[in-house]
Amino acid sequence: MEAIIIQHGEAVDSSVNQERPLSQKGRNQCNKFAEFLHIINWKPDIILHSGILRAYESAAIVAEKFDCQVAISNSINPKDNPDAIIQYLLQEKRNIIVVTHKPFIDVLIARVLSTSQTGIMTITNASPVFLSSDGDMLYCKAYIPETMIDAIIRSFSNRQS
User: Fold this and answer.
1) Is the pTM higher than 0.85?
2) What is the pLDDT of residue 132?
3) Helices 24-39 and 53-66, packing angle to 10 deg
4) Where are the domains of the chain?
5) Could you please report the per-residue DSSP string of 36-71?
């Protein structure tokens, strides 16, 4: 199993819309994330999201590119304890993307890194943290910030020209 944990794409401010849908930048971030996955030949089997609109929209954009299953998880909301999703990921055999929120993503990554200190990595919108599992533990394999995704896409595009 390989998992990718991402924070949803950028959302509009609550002063603009109380439901906080994705902004245009957030939609672009999710499209770039999907393009990046195509470039590295990584296909999700399922995408979990919290059910909150901005997470759902992020999941839907990526799922459309890969024609994969999308489902709600009730254990990945902003203030949830990450223990439930950690146990789920340890048992999961499929490639999975988890679209979640801050501060949950920070607490989850700190737990995977075996520390209580959050904020060790500055995780930005729609930037993936790659995890793998041996069935007993989750391992943090990589974090790819948005600027690196942009550089990889540009480099790939230049080679295709």
Assistant:
1) yes
2) 95
3) 40
4) 2-160
5) HHHHTT---SEEEE-SSHHHHHHHHHHHHHHT-EEE
